[in-house]
Specification:
globular; 231 residues; 4-stranded antiparallel β-sheet; alpha+beta
């Protein structure tokens, strides 16, 4: 027997939506991110604080914008890309039931926030579909080692293998560098560590769709909240 053991895959696609759809998605994301900045540090919905560039109020953009033609077009290509991902990686079919949340990340020079995003995972998401409706580096142009790259790290923590890798289907470097442009879509599993590099430019708009695949054998939690009196 010779088998891949617990593999991780990354699918990258470009130019799936029209410029008009991208423009509308960016407009929605920018307005949504502005509305959900942390202002009151006592708000229990906060993730982070008002003085953090990553702080935002927990919400789900889809709750308000399902039905918008651009959002539905984005979700359609996301579903198609997840179908391709599961088929190519595992020979599996995408289930009909999908649960998702998205909270946009908008980083712009006007707020001094072109600092990237720290390394993290999405442990409660089976699959993440990250879409970039707007990436504008302005006059800064190409930026080697930066450029707001989406970087993936080895989930095992091993990093670079020292022996030569002659298998083009397997990446064994220290990190996989995906440099987004307007219209880039990336599919990966939520447990894979990743971050975003800093960049110089005008603005980068990111729509990360965190998806739970509701297969028939998925767990079905119920609310067990109540009194803890007497403990």
């Amino acid at each position: 027997m010779f088998t891949a053991l617990y593999p991780s895959f990354v699918l990258v696609k470009h130019d799936l939506l029209t410029p008009e759809v991208n423009q509308r998605l960016a407009q929605i994301a920018i307005a949504d991110a502005a509305r959900h900045r942390v202002i009151d540090d006592s708000d229990p919905r906060n993730l982070g604080t008002a003085d953090s560039p990553f702080g935002h109020i927990r919400h789900n953009l889809l709750a308000e914008h399902r039905g918008d033609a651009a959002v539905e077009a984005w979700l359609s290509v996301a579903r198609a890309s997840m179908t391709e991902y599961l088929h190519r990686g595992y020979g599996a079919e995408l289930p009909e039931s999908l649960m998702a949340i998205t909270e946009p990340f908008v980083q712009g020079a006007g707020y001094g926030e072109t600092i990237g995003i720290f390394t993290h995972t999405h442990p409660r998401a089976d699959v993440v579909v990250t879409y970039y409706p707007e990436v504008d580096f302005g006059d800064a142009g190409p930026q080697r080692y930066r450029e707001g790259a989406l970087r993936f790290y080895d989930p095992s923590g091993r990093g670079h293998r020292l022996w030569p890798n002659q298998n083009p289907a397997i990446f064994t470097g220290s990190w996989l560098d995906v440099r987004p442009q307007t219209g880039t879509l990336v599919v990966f599993e939520g447990h894979v560590p990743h971050d975003s590099a800093p960049f110089a430019g005008i603005r980068r708009v990111c729509l990360p769709l965190q998806v739970s695949l509701r297969f028939p054998n998925a767990q079905n939690p119920i609310d067990i909240g109540g009194s803890s009196h007497g403990l």
